Automatic annotation (TrEMBL):
GO terms for cellular component: cytoplasm. Keywords: Cytoplasm, Iron, Metal-binding, Oxidoreductase. InterPro entries: Inositol_oxygenase. Signal peptide: none annotated. Gene3D superfamilies: Hypothetical protein af1432 (1.10.3210.10). It is found in: Cytoplasm. It comes from Aureliella helgolandensis. This is Inositol oxygenase. GO terms for molecular function: inositol oxygenase activity; iron ion binding. It comes from the Bacteria. PANTHER family: INOSITOL OXYGENASE, MYOINOSITOL OXYGENASE. Its cofactor is Fe cation.
Amino acid sequence: MSTKSNQPLKNLDEWEEDLLRRYPQESTKSKRSVTVDTGDSTTANFRNYAAEARPSVREFYRLNHRHQTLEFVRSKRAEYLSLNRRRMSIWEGMEYLNQLVDDSDPDIDLPQIEHLLQTAEAIRADGRPDWFILAGLIHDLGKILCLWDEPQWAVVGDTFPVGCRYSERIVYHEAFRENPDWNNSEYQTELGIYQPHCGLDNVLLSWGHDEYLYHVVKDYLPPPALAMIRYHSCYPIHREQAYQHLLVDEDHEMMRWVTDFNQYDLYTKRDERMDVAALRPYYEALISEYFPGELAW
Ligand SMILES: [Fe+2]
Ligand SMILES: [Fe+2]
């Protein structure tokens, strides 16, 4: 699976850089109102975003949209959610993720652990609750899926519901034409396999680092922190307000937390170095408030 043609990004951060291009910080508010109000121009905008993406990122979206079928998602859940791969603490998970080396330039690109600490430190600086800081610290640990030879398109990328019609508010929507589910009439009605307002907990999202980590930590954190972890890549819902017909009241409440979290994930300064050793005691203490010494991964 880990052949070059299956791994178009030079590193996982390339997708996140593309998110910044799509959702630049200054224009967040105006962009949002445009996307909510005008369905057609949203589709046109998203066509442009895809067309103007780097070829590597466009190819990444194409592979993601082509391969994330309902059956693929079910198979990955069956493969990973028994959590029997290894046992390790949260901090060990952070160090394990840090082994992720790709074709990026180590002098320019930050180690993964520093993105986690940057996010957590930005949340801490704003005086947010402990569990919010902790969600920032761990939110990308699910990227360890890459260390188990999962292709980039099955680890990162915008997530979206499978088993029902793909929203035109998903970036590079036309690439779904290559997905076998596109031709499955049962899966391509507005509701597909779901009931109206069944709640996001009952919806299968495309497989990636969010859903995996949610299952590792779901017994230990309060619901808003779990929503931040589980849905932070679900831009079609938390940024574009698609799939509202699947949501229940509690989901709307949780999406406000996810949106709140998203500013720290996207807009923390990526070039700022973190003193990992100096920060470690504070974060080890925070981790031990919520988590047991070892978790099942
Ligand atoms: Fe993430
Ligand atoms: Fe992140």
